[in-house]
Specification:
The protein has helices at about 1-30, 100-105, 180-190, 210-220, 245-250, 295-315, 340-350, 440, 460-465, 475, 480-500; strands spanning about 60-65, 75-80, 90-95, 110-115, 115-120, 125-130, 140-145, 150, 155-160, 165-170, 195, 225-230, 270-275, 280, 320-325, 355-360, 365-375, 375, 380-385, 405-410, 410-420, 425-430, 450-455. It is α+β, with helices and mostly antiparallel strands and about 500 residues long. The protein has 2 domains: about 1-30 and about 55-160, Purple acid phosphatase-like, N-terminal (Immunoglobulin-like, Sandwich), CATH 2.60.40.380; about 165-500, Purple Acid Phosphatase, chain A, domain 2. Strands 13, 14, 15, 16, 17, 18, 19 and 20 form an 8-stranded mixed β-sheet that branches. It has a 6-stranded mixed β-sheet with strand order 12-11-10-21-22-23. Strand 14, helix 6 (about 295-315) and strand 15 (about 320-325) form a beta-alpha-beta unit. The protein binds fe (ii) ion (FE2) (2 copies). One fe (ii) ion binds near residues 200, 362, 364 and 499.
């Protein structure tokens, strides 16, 4: 086993060096690598202005996630056209600091790791995945993906993840419209160590090439930022039935769930990860219920959050955050709570283990709650931050704000969070529409500005003790499961009627 690992590492390194020569040569041959007229190259944050990818299997839709330690590993995923491709890889190195374009063009890539390849759902393409390991946590990463025969991506950069004070970003309900492009451009102005996408990513709605368009649009952001995503109701349209959410599963790469019984969850639609002193759990909230993974997911949620609450009591982490597409509470008509049985169980789990922050989308507005529990203000509850303002559409509030609501905004926007020891400070950057109905409501031209700020402090030791409880038996947890299934299906149907 150890010998195999050594030999495969050595093989990858040798392949990487070979690829590095070619990649450096390709940059040099491109000439005029600083966006000269006619090259088509553009400068994007996180990438150097070298030649755009070309070749019979040119990599596209490059994006970064983590399935292991965010300081010493990165996972890269990308696509190539055609049902086969040459063996592909990521080539990378870690200079002490970012390089100028001229330095970058001359410097070879010292390391390489081979990727796996599999069919991308619904299109004649392949999904490539690779995890870079043994990274120096203090240095930036410079990388390309592809192959000698198929072509290489442009060069992208990833910054090291700071350990004490760091930033993450959150929004959902994105799409490929001009509004979505504005949100992507705004996101690029706020470099983050982690991007959380709260579902309804591309709005392909079963039309698979739209996923390719979306991944091309967001590549400058997603190839330079660790990005973790939750599936939304629109992801359920890719496949349907037991194949529900297949595009999400075959195009994104996330950690495996803690417990896996069904085992058909490649790409992972529910999972958890630790980022410095914050524990994140990502849930499907039943968006993909037809793939029969919801029972397994609820058991995972219970076990995972019980373990996180214990880790917080031991002083290993400061905060527990959950991200999912569906809000638990909302002021959108008929959706609060839209699925009472599932919401009752989920909120019971969230409150039992003292989740601090619930990050959601779905309703295309911004709404932040007070600390709340069961629809009422509660100092021991969680703060729900709904950022469904990614650009797919702009919605109004159907009802006047409920008592738990702390702030509302209509328009486009994204939330940034600065995490410092014992504190998370959130900021919503929003842009309002031209009017409040018809085309004017969907036209957003004004600059983004800070609209809301808030902070969450680490819980007291006494509060942490109350939440350090053992996970409950699945029989207890799932005693209303048939009703949960019934209500979740009903909620999912209503969600499509409501938002199209
Ligand atoms: Fe949506
Ligand atoms: Fe949605």
């Amino acid at each position: 086993m150890a010998d195999n690992r050594v030999s495969s590492t050595r093989r990858a390194l040798l392949q990487g060096l070979a690829g590095a020569t070619l990649a450096a040569g390709a940059t040099g041959c491109g000439g005029g690598s600083s966006g000269a007229p006619g090259t088509g190259a553009t400068t994007q944050p996180g990438s150097t202005p070298d030649a755009p990818p070309s070749g019979p299997h040119a990599p596209r839709g490059v994006h970064v996630s983590v399935v292991e330690d965010p300081h010493t590993t990165r996972t890269l995923t990308w696509f190539t056209d055609g049902l086969s491709s040459p063996p592909s890889m990521a080539i990378f190195d870690q200079p002490p600091t970012r390089l100028s374009a001229a330095e970058d063009a001359k410097r070879p890539f010292a390391r390489g790791t081979s990727s796996t390849a599999e069919r991308t759902f619904g299109v004649n393409a392949q999904t490539h995945r690779v995890t870079l390991r043994g990274l120096d946590p203090e240095r930036p990463i410079r990388y390309r993906v592809g192959s000698e025969q198929g072509g290489w991506s442009r060069t992208f950069w990833l910054d090291p993840v700071p350990r004490n004070t760091w930033r993450f970003m959150h929004f959902g309900d994105h799409g490929v419209s001009a509004r979505a492009h504005r949100v992507t451009e705004e996101a690029l102005k706020h470099p983050s160590d982690l991007l959380l996408l709260a579902g309804d990513l591309s709005y392909a709605d079963g039309n698979q090439p739209v996923w390719d368009q979306w991944f091309n649009d967001v590549e400058p952001l997603l190839a330079s930022t660790i990005t973790m995503s939750a599936p939304g109701n629109h992801e359920a349209k890719d496949g349907g039935g037991r194949e529900s959410g297949q595009a999400f599963k075959s195009r994104l790469t996330h950690p495996d769930p803690r417990l896996s019984v069904v085992g058909n969850n490649q790409g992972s639609t529910f999972y958890s990860f630790r980022f410095n002193r914050v524990h994140f759990l990502v849930s499907s909230a039943g968006a993909l219920i037809e793939d029969f993974s919801l029972a397994e997911e609820l058991v995972n949620m219970e076990v995972d959050l019980a373990s996180a609450a214990l880790a917080r009591l031991r002083g290993e982490i400061d905060f527990i955050a959950v991200m999912q597409h569906y809000p638990i509470w909302t002021d959108q008509l008929g959706r609060s709570p839209a699925n009472f049985t599932l919401v009752a169980l989920e909120e019971d789990i969230l409150l039992r283990y003292g989740v601090d922050l619930l990050l959601v989308g779905h309703d295309h507005v911004y709404q932040r709650s007070q600390k709340m529990a069961y629809g009422s203000n509660s100092p021991l509850g969680y703060v729900q931050v709904m950022v469904g303002t990614g650009g797919q559409s702009v919605r109004l509030f159907d009802e006047s704000p409920q008592r738990w609501s702390a702030f509302q905004f209509i328009g486009l926007g994204l939330a940034t969070y600065e995490v410092s020891p014992g504190r998370i400070t959130g900021t919503f950057h929003g842009a309002a529409p031209e009017g409040d109905e018809g085309d004017a409501l969907q036209t957003v031209l004004e600059p983004f500005a800070v609209r809301d700020t808030f902070s969450i402090e680490r819980r007291s030791l006494a509060a942490c003790e109350q939440c350090a409880l053992p996970p409950r038996d699945p029989d207890v947890l799932l005693r209303n499961f048939p009703l949960i299934v019934h209500h979740t299906r009903m909620r999912n149907r209503l969600a499509f009627e409501h938002c199209g």
